[in-house]
Amino acid sequence: MFPPSPQPPLRVRVLRSGSAGNAILVEAGSARLLVDAGLPAETILKELDESGLAAPLTAILLTHEHDDHTRGVVAVARATGAAVLANEPTLRAAGAALAGAAVDLFRSDHPFRIGPVEVTPFVLPHDAAEPVGFVLASDGLRVAVACDLGEVTDVLLDHARGADLFVIEANYDVRLLAVSAYPWFLKNRIIGTRGHLSNEGAARAAVGAATGAPQTVHLVHLSEVNNLAPLARDTVRAALAAEGLGTVRVEAVRPNAGGPWWTPAVVPAPAG
């Protein structure tokens, strides 16, 4: 018999992404982390069970307080025993959504550790109390996650540059949004600097984060009305190709759907 394949040092799976709910699973060594839990708890628990985790969930990291990122937090935390971590403005703004959950606080822009994973929360421009993205680093690998933001900032690029996996929002196509039935107040919110990121914005982020080394970009939080996964993917691929950055692999997660596990193509050699 062949020996079992070794477990990768870090792997990531988008469980769901879109306006109906968001949750991203990260497994690294002894840590199993969920970035947001914006789905019904039974859906998340089913996805966790089918993901083949080596052990129960360790922690739930919250990017911000909106319902599509917090809906299942309390029930999932109770069912799994996972810690819930958020910054203080998010905790205050969430109010009843986190009632009954034991929440550990982190400070934005201050790294902390969960087992073998160094977590760095960084502030993003979005219409929430203090929304953040995360850099998750373990065993020489880095994953940057930025799910809700209205514009590409230097802070985002500083944290995402060179990440092995960059999970970035590509919420809408400008032309599809313009002709959609959305009311004008909602369109204006989406395109604002504290709203959501367009395909072109995601392309700028992907180009700004690329270093020429092999990297992967996963496009998430696509609108089911104002975007198409192939359109988002091709927009970002074209921008990278125009800059000679053909080593970057781009995949788009369909609206309100999930994806397979991402694992690093090249595993770094152990330190020392």
Please give a structural write-up.
It is a single chain. This protein is of the alpha/beta class and 272 residues long. It has a single domain (11-252), classed as Ribonuclease Z/Hydroxyacylglutathione hydrolase-like (Metallo-beta-lactamase, Chain A, 4-Layer Sandwich). The protein is built from nine helices and 13 strands. It has helices at residues 41-50, 67-70, 73-80, 88-94, 154-160, 174-179, 184-191, 199-209, 229-242, and strands spanning 11-16, 23-28, 31-35, 59-61, 83-86, 103-105, 112-114, 117-123, 132-138, 141-146, 165-169, 215-220, 248-252. Helix 1 (41-50) crosses helix 3. The radius of gyration is 18 Å and the shape is globular. The model has no long low-confidence stretch (mean pLDDT 94).
